[in-house]
């Protein structure tokens, strides 16, 4: 449709240029050699060549931006954490054969025994911190 409209407009424009020349050539006086007819024919030929080449030419190329496919970000959700009870490790209390010396508290032998036996022994209070997190008095016997 677009080509048809262009051709029609150009044809009308060419006719508007060529037709008035015939009127002036024939209107006033007669020429013996018909110079005006030759000029009108040359103008019509040139206009026809221009219009025909405009219609027959391919359309101008259309440049689009380079088409690049961009992969969208994947919908990834981290899985919810699974809460499992952690095993609680409790020390196994085995009866240990300890020789009881029957040491009296606050004696130098008692201090020596309790500090060797318990790493958390506090000589100021005579207590140590047990596996349950509480303070216990050192009984040497």
TrEMBL record:
GO terms for cellular component: membrane. It is a single-pass membrane protein. InterPro entries: BA14K (IPR012413). It is found in: Membrane. Residues 1-27 form the signal peptide. Keywords: Cell membrane, Lectin, Membrane, Signal, Transmembrane, Transmembrane helix. It holds the Pfam family BA14K. The keyword Coiled coil does not apply. The chain crosses the membrane at residues 37-57. One of its GO terms (molecular function) is carbohydrate binding. Has immunoglobulin-binding and hemagglutination properties, and can bind to mannose. Essential for virulence. May be involved in LPS biosynthesis or polysaccharide transport. Belongs to the BA14k family. This is Lectin-like protein BA14k. It comes from Rhizobium meliloti.
């Amino acid at each position: 449709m677009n080509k048809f409209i262009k051709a029609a407009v150009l044809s009308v424009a060419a006719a508007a240029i060529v037709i008035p020349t015939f009127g002036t050539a024939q209107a006033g006086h007669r020429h013996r050699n018909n110079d005006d007819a030759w000029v009108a024919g040359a103008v019509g030929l040139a206009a026809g060549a221009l219009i025909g080449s405009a219609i027959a030419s391919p359309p101008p190329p259309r440049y689009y931006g380079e088409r690049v496919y961009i992969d969208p970000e994947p919908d990834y959700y981290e899985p919810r954490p699974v809460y499992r009870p952690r095993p609680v490790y409790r020390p196994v209390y085995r009866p240990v054969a300890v020789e009881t010396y029957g040491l009296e508290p606050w004696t130098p032998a008692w201090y020596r025994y309790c500090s060797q036996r318990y790493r958390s022994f506090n000589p100021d209070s005579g207590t140590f911190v047990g596996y349950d997190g509480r303070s216990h008095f050192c009984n040497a016997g």
